[in-house]
Amino acid sequence: TITVTMNQMTVKGAQLTVNISAQPGSQAVVGGVQNFTLANFQLDASQSGEDIRLSSFPVIVRALAADSSLADLTGCALFNGTTQLNTGSRVVNTLNVSTPWNNNISFDNSLTIPKGTSITLSLQCNVASSPTATSYQVTRDATEAHYSVTGVTSGNSVTIGLGTLTIGAGNGGTMSTAAGSFSVAVDS
Predict the structure, then answer these.
(1) Under a CB-based contact definition with an 8 Å cutoff, are residues 180 and 128 in contact?
(2) 187: which DSSP letter?
(3) Do residues 104 and 56 make contact, with C-beta atoms less than 8 angstroms apart?
(4) Residue 131's closest CA among 67, 182, 86, 87?
(5) Do 57 and 104 meet the contact criterion of CB atoms below 8 Å apart?
(6) SS3 of 186, please?
C-alpha cells in the first residue's frame, strides 16, 4: 500500500456576470440620429469554468417623463463590436412601454462567450427626427426568468438561484433629447 498525491483539481461550473457600463454617460441626443448607443452591457465570463451561450438578451428602456413614450426609438439592435446580433424581423421597432421588461431581443444565432473572457454588447436605436419624449434610460433587468443562459459543454442553466448568474445594480445614463441647432455669424 502506498500513498499517491495527485494534482489538485478545481471544478468550476458555468458562471456569468451582467453589468450596464457607465459609458456612455448621460448626454443630449439630437433627433434623427441613427444607431445611437443607449447603453453598453458588459457580459463577464472570466470566472466561468466553461463557455457561455445566449440565444437572447433582455433589455429595459424607459421614457423618464410621465407623458413620454418609446415610439421615438426604432430599429433597436444589439451589437457585439461591429456585428449586429439581431437582424431582419428580429430588429425591435416597437419597444414595449406597458411592460418594458418584455423587450427580449432574440439573436439570429446563439452568442458564445468563451470562458475566461468578457464582451460588451451595445444597444443601438434610431431616434425619431422630431422626438416627443424628453429622456430615456436603460435600466437593469434582475428577473432571472428573462435570461436564457447555459453552459456550452454541460448544457446547465446559469441562474441567479444557483448563484451562477449575477446581475449588477447599475443603470445606464440618462439620454435627453434636444433639438439640433445651427448658427451663423459674420466674422468682423
Answers:
(1) no
(2) -
(3) yes
(4) 67
(5) yes
(6) coil
The dihedral over CA atoms of 149, 152, 157, 160, expressed in degrees to the nearest 10, equals -60
| Rounded distance between C-alpha atoms, residue 149 and residue 111, angstroms | 10
pLDDT digits (tens, 9 = 90+) for 72-131: 899 999 999 999 999 999 999 988 766 655 688 999 999 999 999 999 999 999 999 888
Mean pLDDT within 136-155: 91
Residue 30: CA count within 13 A, CB half-sphere: 5
Whether 64 contacts 100, CB under 8 Å: no
Three-state DSSP class for residue 165: strand
From residue 131, give the alpha-carbon distance in Å to each of 32, 91, 134, 146, 177: 8, 20, 8, 29, 7
Going by C-alpha positions, the residue among 13, 54, 3, 18 that lies closest to residue 142 is 18
Spatial separation of the C-alpha atoms in residues 100 and 36, rounded to whole Å? 19
End-to-end CA distance of the chain: 100
Q: What is the pTM of this model?
A: 0.87
Mean of per-residue pLDDT scores for the chain:
89
